[in-house]
Amino acid sequence: MKRLLLSIAPLALTAAAAQAQDNLETLQNMQRTDATFTEIAQDGERADALREILQYINVPDGFEVSLYAVVPDARSMAVAPQGTVTFVGTRKDKVWSVVDRDRNRVADQVMDFAPSITFDIPNGPCFSRDGFLYIAERNRVLQFPAAEFFFEGPDPAVGVVVAQGELVPAEEESFNHTARVCRIGPDGKLYISLGQPFNVQPVEKHEMYDEIGIGGIIRMNTDGSEREVFTRGIRNSVGHDFNPANGDLWFTDNQVDGMGDDIPPGELNRQTAAGQHFGFPWTNARVEMPDYRSVPRPEGVEFIEPQVEMVAHAADLGMSFYSGSSFPEEYRGGIFSAQHGSWNRTTPVGARVMFTALDEEGNAAETMVFADGWLNEETGEYRGRPMDIAFLADGSMLVSDDFAGAIWRIAYNPAPAE
Description:
Elements: H1 14-19, H2 24-28, E1 39-40, H3 45-53, E2 63-70, E3 77-79, E4 85-88, E5 96-99, E6 109-112, E7 124-127, E8 133-136, E9 141-144, H4 147-150, E10 159-162, E11 182-184, E12 190-194, H5 203-212, E13 216-220, E14 228-231, E15 240-242, E16 249-253, E17 266-271, E18 283-284, E19 287-288, E20 308-310, E21 316-321, E22 335-339, E23 352-358, E24 364-371, E25 375-376, E26 381-382, E27 386-391, E28 397-401, E29 406-412
Antiparallel strand pairs: 1-6, 2-29, 3-4, 4-5, 5-6, 7-8, 8-9, 9-10, 11-12, 12-13, 13-14, 15-16, 16-17, 17-20, 18-19, 21-22, 22-23, 23-24, 25-26, 27-28, 28-29
Protein backbone atom coordinates (compact mmCIF):
# COMPACT_ATOMS: atom_id res chain seq x y z
CA MET A 1 0.00 0.00 0.00
CA LYS A 2 1.36 3.40 -0.96
CA ARG A 3 2.49 5.66 1.88
CA LEU A 4 0.39 8.75 2.24
CA LEU A 5 0.84 10.49 5.58
CA LEU A 6 0.25 14.22 5.17
CA SER A 7 -2.75 13.70 2.97
CA ILE A 8 -5.79 15.57 4.19
CA ALA A 9 -5.86 19.29 4.88
CA PRO A 10 -8.39 21.49 6.72
CA LEU A 11 -11.10 23.36 4.87
CA ALA A 12 -12.61 26.51 6.34
CA LEU A 13 -16.39 26.50 6.09
CA THR A 14 -17.43 30.06 6.87
CA ALA A 15 -20.82 29.78 5.16
CA ALA A 16 -21.82 26.87 7.39
CA ALA A 17 -20.58 28.78 10.44
CA ALA A 18 -22.76 31.76 9.57
CA GLN A 19 -25.78 29.62 8.85
CA ALA A 20 -25.36 27.82 12.18
CA GLN A 21 -26.41 31.02 13.98
CA ASP A 22 -29.95 30.91 12.55
CA ASN A 23 -32.67 31.50 15.13
CA LEU A 24 -30.38 31.32 18.16
CA GLU A 25 -31.15 34.88 19.27
CA THR A 26 -34.86 34.24 18.74
CA LEU A 27 -34.79 31.18 20.96
CA GLN A 28 -32.64 32.83 23.60
CA ASN A 29 -35.28 35.57 23.80
CA MET A 30 -37.89 32.85 24.42
CA GLN A 31 -39.63 33.65 21.15
CA ARG A 32 -41.22 31.29 18.64
CA THR A 33 -40.14 30.45 15.11
CA ASP A 34 -42.01 28.88 12.22
CA ALA A 35 -40.00 25.67 12.30
CA THR A 36 -41.70 22.33 11.66
CA PHE A 37 -40.64 18.79 12.45
CA THR A 38 -39.31 16.10 10.16
CA GLU A 39 -40.63 12.70 11.26
CA ILE A 40 -39.18 9.34 10.25
CA ALA A 41 -41.58 6.47 9.62
CA GLN A 42 -40.96 3.46 11.84
CA ASP A 43 -42.78 0.99 9.61
CA GLY A 44 -42.96 0.21 5.91
CA GLU A 45 -40.35 -0.94 3.40
CA ARG A 46 -37.35 0.69 5.08
CA ALA A 47 -38.04 -0.88 8.46
CA ASP A 48 -38.70 -4.23 6.82
CA ALA A 49 -35.37 -4.06 4.96
CA LEU A 50 -33.53 -3.31 8.21
CA ARG A 51 -35.16 -6.27 9.95
CA GLU A 52 -33.82 -8.50 7.17
CA ILE A 53 -30.31 -7.67 8.44
CA LEU A 54 -31.06 -9.18 11.86
CA GLN A 55 -30.63 -12.75 10.61
CA TYR A 56 -26.92 -12.07 10.00
CA ILE A 57 -26.07 -10.55 13.40
CA ASN A 58 -24.26 -12.89 15.79
CA VAL A 59 -24.52 -12.40 19.56
CA PRO A 60 -23.56 -14.68 22.48
CA ASP A 61 -25.96 -17.36 23.69
CA GLY A 62 -28.85 -15.92 25.65
CA PHE A 63 -28.75 -12.55 23.87
CA GLU A 64 -31.10 -11.35 21.16
CA VAL A 65 -30.86 -8.43 18.74
CA SER A 66 -33.77 -6.41 17.39
CA LEU A 67 -34.46 -3.20 15.49
CA TYR A 68 -35.05 -0.41 18.01
CA ALA A 69 -35.52 2.50 15.60
CA VAL A 70 -35.13 3.72 12.04
CA VAL A 71 -32.80 6.72 12.43
CA PRO A 72 -31.03 8.18 9.36
CA ASP A 73 -27.28 8.74 9.81
CA ALA A 74 -27.45 7.65 13.50
CA ARG A 75 -24.21 8.49 15.32
CA SER A 76 -23.49 9.27 19.00
CA MET A 77 -26.35 8.74 21.46
CA ALA A 78 -27.43 10.23 24.79
CA VAL A 79 -30.20 8.53 26.76
CA ALA A 80 -32.10 11.09 28.86
CA PRO A 81 -31.82 10.64 32.64
CA GLN A 82 -35.46 9.61 33.08
CA GLY A 83 -35.46 7.49 29.93
CA THR A 84 -38.15 9.48 28.12
CA VAL A 85 -36.12 10.00 24.95
CA THR A 86 -32.77 9.18 23.38
CA PHE A 87 -31.04 11.99 21.48
CA VAL A 88 -29.00 10.89 18.48
CA GLY A 89 -26.42 13.04 16.69
CA THR A 90 -25.42 12.92 13.03
CA ARG A 91 -22.58 14.08 10.83
CA LYS A 92 -25.05 16.19 8.88
CA ASP A 93 -27.45 18.85 10.21
CA LYS A 94 -29.90 16.86 12.33
CA VAL A 95 -30.21 15.72 15.92
CA TRP A 96 -32.92 13.08 16.30
CA SER A 97 -35.30 12.50 19.22
CA VAL A 98 -36.06 8.79 19.55
CA VAL A 99 -39.07 8.06 21.76
CA ASP A 100 -40.42 4.79 23.16
CA ARG A 101 -43.65 5.95 24.83
CA ASP A 102 -45.06 2.57 25.79
CA ARG A 103 -41.66 1.28 27.00
CA ASN A 104 -41.90 -1.89 24.91
CA ARG A 105 -38.26 -1.34 23.80
CA VAL A 106 -39.23 -0.40 20.25
CA ALA A 107 -39.29 3.27 19.26
CA ASP A 108 -42.71 4.74 18.55
CA GLN A 109 -41.54 8.06 17.14
CA VAL A 110 -38.39 9.54 15.61
CA MET A 111 -38.31 13.26 14.80
CA ASP A 112 -35.70 15.96 14.58
CA PHE A 113 -34.81 17.85 17.75
CA ALA A 114 -34.86 21.67 17.76
CA PRO A 115 -35.66 22.02 14.03
CA SER A 116 -35.50 25.81 14.40
CA ILE A 117 -31.70 25.54 14.84
CA THR A 118 -29.31 24.98 11.96
CA PHE A 119 -26.86 22.41 13.31
CA ASP A 120 -23.42 21.84 11.79
CA ILE A 121 -22.24 18.24 12.31
CA PRO A 122 -23.97 17.79 15.70
CA ASN A 123 -22.34 14.40 16.28
CA GLY A 124 -21.96 14.63 20.05
CA PRO A 125 -24.91 14.79 22.47
CA CYS A 126 -24.40 14.15 26.18
CA PHE A 127 -26.35 14.69 29.40
CA SER A 128 -25.47 16.13 32.77
CA ARG A 129 -26.84 14.37 35.82
CA ASP A 130 -29.29 17.22 36.40
CA GLY A 131 -30.83 16.84 32.95
CA PHE A 132 -29.05 19.43 30.78
CA LEU A 133 -28.42 18.24 27.23
CA TYR A 134 -25.14 19.35 25.59
CA ILE A 135 -24.54 19.06 21.86
CA ALA A 136 -20.98 19.32 20.55
CA GLU A 137 -20.88 20.38 16.92
CA ARG A 138 -18.00 20.87 14.53
CA ASN A 139 -17.15 24.25 16.04
CA ARG A 140 -19.74 25.11 18.67
CA VAL A 141 -21.27 23.70 21.85
CA LEU A 142 -24.92 24.29 22.79
CA GLN A 143 -26.83 23.57 26.01
CA PHE A 144 -30.52 22.67 26.24
CA PRO A 145 -32.08 22.81 29.74
CA ALA A 146 -34.75 20.17 30.37
CA ALA A 147 -34.54 18.89 26.79
CA GLU A 148 -36.05 15.60 27.92
CA PHE A 149 -39.33 17.39 28.65
CA PHE A 150 -39.41 19.99 25.88
CA PHE A 151 -38.23 18.00 22.86
CA GLU A 152 -41.78 17.89 21.46
CA GLY A 153 -41.72 21.62 20.74
CA PRO A 154 -39.70 22.97 17.79
CA ASP A 155 -38.30 25.89 19.80
CA PRO A 156 -36.57 24.64 22.98
CA ALA A 157 -34.68 26.91 25.33
CA VAL A 158 -31.01 27.00 24.34
CA GLY A 159 -27.77 28.40 25.72
CA VAL A 160 -24.37 28.80 24.09
CA VAL A 161 -21.52 27.12 25.97
CA VAL A 162 -18.89 27.67 23.26
CA ALA A 163 -19.78 30.16 20.54
CA GLN A 164 -19.52 29.36 16.86
CA GLY A 165 -15.87 29.48 15.76
CA GLU A 166 -14.40 29.25 19.27
CA LEU A 167 -14.09 25.50 19.80
CA VAL A 168 -11.24 25.49 17.27
CA PRO A 169 -9.85 28.45 15.29
CA ALA A 170 -11.97 29.11 12.20
CA GLU A 171 -8.97 28.55 9.93
CA GLU A 172 -8.58 25.03 11.37
CA GLU A 173 -12.23 24.15 10.75
CA SER A 174 -12.28 21.09 8.53
CA PHE A 175 -14.38 18.48 6.78
CA ASN A 176 -12.15 15.79 8.31
CA HIS A 177 -12.18 14.39 11.87
CA THR A 178 -14.93 16.80 12.95
CA ALA A 179 -17.21 14.34 14.79
CA ARG A 180 -16.98 15.63 18.38
CA VAL A 181 -18.09 13.59 21.36
CA CYS A 182 -18.76 14.83 24.88
CA ARG A 183 -19.26 13.52 28.40
CA ILE A 184 -19.81 15.09 31.80
CA GLY A 185 -17.05 13.83 34.09
CA PRO A 186 -17.24 12.86 37.78
CA ASP A 187 -15.98 16.40 38.51
CA GLY A 188 -19.05 17.90 36.83
CA LYS A 189 -16.98 19.32 33.97
CA LEU A 190 -17.66 18.94 30.26
CA TYR A 191 -15.14 16.85 28.31
CA ILE A 192 -14.97 17.19 24.50
CA SER A 193 -12.66 15.41 22.05
CA LEU A 194 -11.07 17.42 19.22
CA GLY A 195 -9.78 15.25 16.39
CA GLN A 196 -6.92 16.81 14.48
CA PRO A 197 -7.88 17.36 10.83
CA PHE A 198 -4.86 15.83 9.08
CA ASN A 199 -3.75 12.24 8.68
CA VAL A 200 -0.59 13.39 10.47
CA GLN A 201 -0.50 17.10 11.30
CA PRO A 202 2.32 19.19 9.78
CA VAL A 203 5.20 19.78 12.16
CA GLU A 204 4.66 23.53 12.01
CA LYS A 205 1.11 23.14 13.39
CA HIS A 206 1.96 20.80 16.23
CA GLU A 207 2.66 23.39 18.92
CA MET A 208 -0.53 25.32 18.17
CA TYR A 209 -2.63 22.16 18.14
CA ASP A 210 -1.16 21.02 21.44
CA GLU A 211 -1.91 24.35 23.07
CA ILE A 212 -5.54 24.44 21.85
CA GLY A 213 -6.22 20.74 22.40
CA ILE A 214 -6.66 19.76 18.76
CA GLY A 215 -5.67 16.11 18.77
CA GLY A 216 -6.70 15.81 22.40
CA ILE A 217 -9.60 16.02 24.84
CA ILE A 218 -10.41 19.33 26.46
CA ARG A 219 -12.46 19.99 29.58
CA MET A 220 -14.30 23.05 30.85
CA ASN A 221 -17.01 24.09 33.23
CA THR A 222 -20.49 23.58 31.86
CA ASP A 223 -20.76 27.33 31.22
CA GLY A 224 -17.67 27.18 29.00
CA SER A 225 -15.29 28.77 31.48
CA GLU A 226 -11.88 27.48 32.65
CA ARG A 227 -11.14 25.54 29.49
CA GLU A 228 -8.01 23.39 29.61
CA VAL A 229 -6.37 20.56 27.68
CA PHE A 230 -6.95 17.38 29.68
CA THR A 231 -5.62 14.73 27.25
CA ARG A 232 -2.71 15.10 24.83
CA GLY A 233 -1.17 13.02 22.07
CA ILE A 234 -4.17 11.42 20.38
CA ARG A 235 -5.18 11.54 16.73
CA ASN A 236 -8.95 11.30 16.50
CA SER A 237 -10.97 9.99 19.42
CA VAL A 238 -14.70 9.55 18.72
CA GLY A 239 -15.61 7.75 21.91
CA HIS A 240 -14.86 8.25 25.58
CA ASP A 241 -16.43 7.38 28.92
CA PHE A 242 -15.58 7.44 32.61
CA ASN A 243 -15.22 4.27 34.65
CA PRO A 244 -17.96 4.56 37.31
CA ALA A 245 -15.83 2.46 39.67
CA ASN A 246 -12.91 4.90 39.95
CA GLY A 247 -13.50 7.88 37.65
CA ASP A 248 -10.73 7.05 35.14
CA LEU A 249 -11.26 8.35 31.60
CA TRP A 250 -11.15 5.73 28.83
CA PHE A 251 -11.20 6.56 25.13
CA THR A 252 -10.82 5.00 21.71
CA ASP A 253 -8.39 6.48 19.19
CA ASN A 254 -8.31 6.10 15.40
CA GLN A 255 -4.85 5.79 13.95
CA VAL A 256 -2.97 6.82 10.81
CA ASP A 257 -3.93 5.64 7.33
CA GLY A 258 -1.55 4.87 4.49
CA MET A 259 0.97 2.68 6.33
CA GLY A 260 -0.42 -0.67 5.21
CA ASP A 261 -3.23 -3.03 6.15
CA ASP A 262 -1.88 -4.20 9.48
CA ILE A 263 -0.40 -1.10 11.16
CA PRO A 264 -0.96 0.92 13.22
CA PRO A 265 -3.38 -0.85 15.56
CA GLY A 266 -6.47 0.90 16.88
CA GLU A 267 -6.36 1.96 20.50
CA LEU A 268 -8.38 1.75 23.69
CA ASN A 269 -6.74 3.98 26.30
CA ARG A 270 -6.96 4.60 30.04
CA GLN A 271 -6.18 8.01 31.53
CA THR A 272 -5.58 8.31 35.26
CA ALA A 273 -4.38 11.93 35.59
CA ALA A 274 -4.87 15.26 33.85
CA GLY A 275 -2.37 16.13 31.14
CA GLN A 276 -1.17 12.63 30.31
CA HIS A 277 0.27 12.25 26.79
CA PHE A 278 -0.56 9.26 24.57
CA GLY A 279 2.23 9.60 22.04
CA PHE A 280 0.76 10.98 18.83
CA PRO A 281 2.17 12.21 16.47
CA TRP A 282 5.44 10.57 17.48
CA THR A 283 3.84 7.16 17.86
CA ASN A 284 0.63 5.29 17.05
CA ALA A 285 0.49 2.66 19.79
CA ARG A 286 4.11 1.46 19.44
CA VAL A 287 4.48 2.33 15.74
CA GLU A 288 6.71 5.35 15.14
CA MET A 289 5.67 8.12 12.73
CA PRO A 290 8.48 8.78 10.23
CA ASP A 291 7.56 12.45 9.86
CA TYR A 292 8.32 13.11 13.53
CA ARG A 293 11.58 11.17 13.93
CA SER A 294 13.59 14.39 13.80
CA VAL A 295 11.23 16.35 16.08
CA PRO A 296 12.28 16.36 19.76
CA ARG A 297 9.76 14.67 22.03
CA PRO A 298 8.30 16.71 24.89
CA GLU A 299 10.95 16.93 27.58
CA GLY A 300 10.19 14.94 30.71
CA VAL A 301 6.91 13.57 29.31
CA GLU A 302 6.17 9.86 29.45
CA PHE A 303 4.00 8.49 26.65
CA ILE A 304 1.13 6.33 27.95
CA GLU A 305 0.74 3.10 26.00
CA PRO A 306 -2.71 1.85 25.04
CA GLN A 307 -4.51 -0.61 27.26
CA VAL A 308 -5.75 -2.53 24.21
CA GLU A 309 -4.35 -2.68 20.67
CA MET A 310 -7.27 -3.39 18.36
CA VAL A 311 -7.02 -4.75 14.83
CA ALA A 312 -5.64 -2.07 12.49
CA HIS A 313 -8.06 0.22 10.67
CA ALA A 314 -11.24 -1.25 12.17
CA ALA A 315 -12.20 2.33 13.21
CA ASP A 316 -12.91 2.02 16.93
CA LEU A 317 -15.45 4.73 17.75
CA GLY A 318 -18.12 4.97 20.46
CA MET A 319 -17.71 3.21 23.81
CA SER A 320 -19.56 2.93 27.12
CA PHE A 321 -19.07 1.19 30.44
CA TYR A 322 -21.73 -1.33 31.37
CA SER A 323 -23.30 -0.43 34.71
CA GLY A 324 -26.60 -2.27 34.27
CA SER A 325 -27.68 -5.49 35.90
CA SER A 326 -29.53 -7.43 33.19
CA PHE A 327 -26.41 -8.76 31.43
CA PRO A 328 -24.54 -11.72 32.97
CA GLU A 329 -22.01 -10.96 35.69
CA GLU A 330 -18.97 -11.26 33.42
CA TYR A 331 -20.04 -8.16 31.46
CA ARG A 332 -20.72 -5.88 34.42
CA GLY A 333 -18.22 -3.07 34.85
CA GLY A 334 -16.64 -3.78 31.45
CA ILE A 335 -16.44 -1.71 28.26
CA PHE A 336 -18.49 -2.18 25.12
CA SER A 337 -17.10 -0.40 22.06
CA ALA A 338 -18.15 -0.08 18.43
CA GLN A 339 -15.90 -0.79 15.47
CA HIS A 340 -17.21 1.20 12.53
CA GLY A 341 -15.29 -0.82 9.95
CA SER A 342 -12.34 -0.06 7.69
CA TRP A 343 -12.66 2.18 4.65
CA ASN A 344 -9.31 1.65 2.90
CA ARG A 345 -8.09 -1.76 4.01
CA THR A 346 -7.48 -4.40 1.31
CA THR A 347 -9.60 -6.89 3.29
CA PRO A 348 -12.29 -5.03 5.25
CA VAL A 349 -12.46 -5.58 9.02
CA GLY A 350 -14.63 -4.33 11.84
CA ALA A 351 -18.36 -3.49 11.76
CA ARG A 352 -18.87 -5.16 15.12
CA VAL A 353 -19.23 -4.58 18.85
CA MET A 354 -16.27 -5.42 21.08
CA PHE A 355 -16.20 -6.15 24.81
CA THR A 356 -13.24 -5.44 27.12
CA ALA A 357 -13.23 -6.82 30.65
CA LEU A 358 -11.26 -5.06 33.39
CA ASP A 359 -9.20 -6.62 36.16
CA GLU A 360 -9.24 -5.75 39.86
CA GLU A 361 -6.73 -2.92 39.30
CA GLY A 362 -8.91 -1.33 36.65
CA ASN A 363 -6.75 -2.35 33.69
CA ALA A 364 -7.93 -4.11 30.54
CA ALA A 365 -7.90 -7.87 31.05
CA GLU A 366 -9.37 -9.36 27.89
CA THR A 367 -10.96 -8.06 24.69
CA MET A 368 -13.29 -10.13 22.52
CA VAL A 369 -15.89 -9.81 19.79
CA PHE A 370 -19.36 -9.46 21.33
CA ALA A 371 -21.55 -8.94 18.25
CA ASP A 372 -20.76 -9.09 14.54
CA GLY A 373 -22.31 -9.88 11.17
CA TRP A 374 -22.75 -6.34 9.87
CA LEU A 375 -19.85 -7.08 7.49
CA ASN A 376 -20.42 -9.63 4.75
CA GLU A 377 -17.01 -11.28 4.83
CA GLU A 378 -17.60 -13.13 1.55
CA THR A 379 -18.18 -9.97 -0.50
CA GLY A 380 -16.54 -7.33 1.71
CA GLU A 381 -19.79 -5.33 1.70
CA TYR A 382 -21.28 -3.68 4.77
CA ARG A 383 -24.80 -4.43 5.90
CA GLY A 384 -24.32 -1.86 8.64
CA ARG A 385 -21.59 0.00 10.50
CA PRO A 386 -21.89 0.26 14.30
CA MET A 387 -20.89 3.68 15.59
CA ASP A 388 -21.86 4.14 19.24
CA ILE A 389 -23.02 2.23 22.32
CA ALA A 390 -25.58 3.34 24.91
CA PHE A 391 -27.77 1.60 27.47
CA LEU A 392 -31.44 1.83 28.39
CA ALA A 393 -32.75 1.77 31.94
CA ASP A 394 -33.46 -1.97 31.71
CA GLY A 395 -29.76 -2.64 31.02
CA SER A 396 -30.22 -3.49 27.35
CA MET A 397 -27.79 -2.08 24.80
CA LEU A 398 -28.41 0.33 21.94
CA VAL A 399 -26.04 0.26 18.95
CA SER A 400 -26.23 3.16 16.50
CA ASP A 401 -25.52 2.51 12.83
CA ASP A 402 -25.00 5.45 10.47
CA PHE A 403 -24.66 3.25 7.38
CA ALA A 404 -27.91 1.33 7.73
CA GLY A 405 -29.63 4.30 9.35
CA ALA A 406 -30.76 2.37 12.41
CA ILE A 407 -30.44 1.80 16.10
CA TRP A 408 -30.20 -1.86 17.08
CA ARG A 409 -31.07 -3.19 20.53
CA ILE A 410 -29.27 -6.11 22.16
CA ALA A 411 -30.89 -7.65 25.24
CA TYR A 412 -30.17 -10.64 27.43
CA ASN A 413 -33.15 -12.97 27.28
CA PRO A 414 -32.04 -16.54 27.92
CA ALA A 415 -34.39 -19.40 27.18
CA PRO A 416 -35.99 -20.85 30.33
CA ALA A 417 -34.34 -24.00 31.66
CA GLU A 418 -36.13 -27.18 30.71
